Amino acid sequence: xxxxxxxxxxxxxxxxxxxxxxxxxxxxxxxxxxxxxxxxxxxxxxxxxxxxxxxxxxxxxxxxxxxxxxxxxxxxxxxxxxxxxxxxxxxxxxxxxxxxxxxxxxxxxxxx
Length: 112
Known about the structure:
Blueprint (H helix, E strand, L loop, with lengths): L3 E7 L2 E8 L2 E7 L2 E2 L7 H15 L8 H28 L3 H15 L3
Antiparallel strand pairs: 1-2, 2-3, 3-4
Helix pairs in contact: 1-2
């Protein structure tokens, strides 16, 4: 696997990226190390539901803040996915590309 690193600097500090066989991935964003990871949306939606239920469970009162942090982070990831999905739907290069994408998306989500 060939990897190339890029570093950009602005008023927030350095941002670092690696480009490899998987594409361009962010490693640091404005001086904050980050990891770019992917979730299957069907799993992400199930985890959000699990966290929603766990956050209100009296037995988890001591962990509520941590559960909320996880929940809202995953909720933001889900919101980003929905925006990216809309971007693909709106700007698909051809009608055939759009049809193929939507068919794969519907199959992966499983009718949700």
